[in-house]
Amino acid sequence: MAIPVSTLRLQFHKDFTFDDALSRLDYFSGLGVSHLYASPITTARPGSLHGYDVVDPTQISAEIGGEEGLRRLVAALRERKMGLIVDIVPNHMGVGASENPWWADVLAWGERSQYARYFDIDWNTPVPGLKGKVLAPILGSDYAEALAGQIKLDFEADNGHFVIRYYDNVFPVSAASHAEILRHVSAEHGMDDADAWWRPFDVLERLDEPEHLRDQADRAFGGLQHFAKSEAGQAVIAAALKAYDGSDEATRPALHRLLEAQHYRLSGWRCASDEINWRRFFDVNTLAGLRIEVPEVFEATHALIFRLYQDGLIDGVRIDHIDGLAWPGQYCRKLRQRLEALTEARPNDAPRGRPWIVVEKILAQGETLHTDWAIDGTTGYDFMNEVGALLHDRSHLPELKAAWKEWTDDDIPDDYEIVAESSRRKILTEHFSSELDSATRALQNVARRHLQSREVTFHALRRVLIELVVHFPVYRVYTGDDGMSEQDRRLLHKAVDGARTSLRRVDLPVLERLAQWLENWPNAGPQSEVNPDALAPIDQENDKAARTAIQRILQLTSPVNAKSIEDTAFYRYGVLLSRNEVGADPSLFAMSPNAFHQSVLRRAKDFPHAMLTTATHDHKRGEGVRTRLAVVSEMPERWISVVNQWRKLNQQRVAHIDGAAVPPTDVEIMLYEMLAGAWPADIAGQPAQADELQDFVERICAWQEKAQREAKLRTDWFVPDTEYENASRNFVTGSCAPGTPFVGEMVNFVREIAAAGAINSLSQAVLRSTVPGVPDLYQGTEYWDLSLVDPDNRRPVDYEARNTSLQAWNRAADKHSALQELIEHWTDGRVKQALVASLLQFRRDHPGVFGDGDYQPLRVDGAKGQHAVAFTRRYGDDVVLVAVTRFPWQLAGAVSTPAIPADVWADTRLPLEGELGQITWHDVLTGREIAASNDLHLGDIMQPLPVAVLFGQVR
């Protein structure tokens, strides 16, 4: 059980705790999963619904049950022979002020803080007023407005600290400022003995050793705490607060001077993109990057995880945002080494095998995961992309692109690469300009150390770096002590080739020099045979500068790609939204069965235990939405016809602001896609279902608002255009009101494609559960998943209903009859749950076949051969044969249930050679036996479901 047989992802938060999971363990076990897979369990910001804003990695979140709750959960898991995988966040922490003790210490002590090296802070930034400080861009207004009454000096009597409050945000006041405040007040009051309680703070400013500093600080603040309890002390504190009152014009300058003396600079949040001097997670001002490459930081942030693993409470980890780290490969190898060293110390009831480690990594076209990282694979976005592409029909892409172009009148290009490039340029220059400048300065620092490059200017380097990042075809490349791999060199060359087409000739030599340095570092140098003029380190000091520069560049390309693709281009380009998904590339619209088989074989060879997923807490639309929209790729003429009809029906609802239509056509088309993909199949839109329809429409409105802000074309998160957004919302609510002609037509279209979409969903679920890898089931998606982007995809799950239906399925003696009944009532999702549970239970009972069995594609012969994908898994004498349906609309038309009549398959069959033709097969889903044959006809084995999973043994 060291490697999971299957996982179930759970999102823990204050409303779903360890005890909540414990109370549902019988259900999870009944599904057949071997491991729960938890969102981050360390202490996050209060009320966090996801856990990625960690504020204390040394403690398990009390909100979700603390360590006692975790131990209760794991004890119950072990009783059921199950385990736990946890999500860890090594790249960043949630920061604000007092919530994160490490960050608060940095704000209090600046560079003298013992945690100053923990965060990726540029203490020598050239930004005016920031040298030696940390930018704190948390003000909702400009500084002057906030100073006049919103920012307040306060005193915390329970610990003897003056603090700065800005609404719920609390910032420490430095020791020097404590001395100044108290000295100032004492002078005003003529207090002769004042030095007894301000001088200890003054002394603190001359101490550097952390141990002495902490001891002296405890005494100083303890003394002030004690003094503040006296009548005289209370008078002094009250006088101090009055002396620095920003709401009073007379004392406002004093408050300003106090703020200027801190180790941080409060600013409006809009300043962050241009001036922030610490690495963020993406462009989130409340998430600060960690320097996990520093041994001290690595140990401090992982101490709890190591202890939990040694104590047998966890069996492996999922590493969040691996590309944010300075040196991902080095980190993964070190983590593996540390965990394996603890394996022998684990208790007897915990598995002693290889700890399971997977990484959240987005793989682009032509990119493969590095095999030397000592990990088990990715978290499955690559599989999600491949299985989705398999279900799309490439042959009709030209018609869909032509329709998009006609509808949008060239406002949005039909070439995805153009959209992606323009999105990267916007994100880099507008959202990451500070990070861009930081990388450029680090690069210039290297350039100035060599005679051949000392006159390469900051702005020349910045221009070149912009074009290089804009044309990066992947999230990032990797380098280390051995330089770059051949794959990374090739990907870097592609970025350079793209940059070369958009730079002025005067900047091309700088580009070539930068490219050679990046490619050959750390082996290139002024005396190198590679290029005598290359930028490269030549001694220890220069090596440090080079490492900083390379790190800045590589930690820039990843967030820029993520924000520009996932959170910008995907909301601008709407040819078919089912291919706009995390890990996917809309330009890779579809994948042939052969290409799919080859991708599976590669994964089986290099990462046989990688995670396989089709839904996550980060997906843009649920797996059921994507599989339903995949049907549109089979029927472009019908789709174009209904969209044109819908546009006519809703034409009168289009508003006009400053002469422009709202919503604009691109937004309107993407709205129709989401409505068609996510519309619940059991909602007919009649007045009797008004409440259900209103709930769905509210979810769509929330999606549309987020989608338009992410697109950053007519409104955005920085400055929302509320008039535009309200008009867009009114279009949705008006069009989707109960009884409108549009609702009737949408319901009719959904009825046409919903069952075919469900067939795709069943095929996807079977592939996830049977190809090489570890299948992951995202919470609640054992029923149909018609969720939207977060937070919609993190809504509470109705486990009571799921438990009831699972028990009924597990008790059913006649599985064939039970399946037929579930198919008749397919819209409630129970048929998918029955399929998922049957496969996960079967995997649990046959771990060898799925954990170590080989994978062999099968040929499909006959008139409908292009509509099926088949393969076998074999381990010793055990064989599993799998076949799934593809392109159900073209195969069977508008079916009313997710079942395909046997005669539709005609003569389509699986030719079995040699030993396979001698096997008597057992149908895993129905329990029936299928006689040995050299030909298995799909019409026979794909009944009553449009998929088949057969088990047999070679005799």
TrEMBL record:
Alphabetical list of CDD domains matching this protein: AmyAc_MTSase
Start and end residues of each Glycosyl hydrolase family 13 catalytic domain: 12-504
Keyword vocabulary terms for this entry: Isomerase
A GO molecular function held by the record: (1,4)-alpha-D-glucan 1-alpha-D-glucosylmutase activity
InterPro entries linked: GH, GH13_cat_dom, Maltooligo_trehalose_synth_4, Trehalose_TreY
GO biological process, one term: alpha-glucan catabolic process
This protein's name: Maltooligosyl trehalose synthase
Native source species: Amantichitinum ursilacus
Higher taxonomy: Bacteria, Pseudomonadati, Pseudomonadota, Betaproteobacteria, Neisseriales
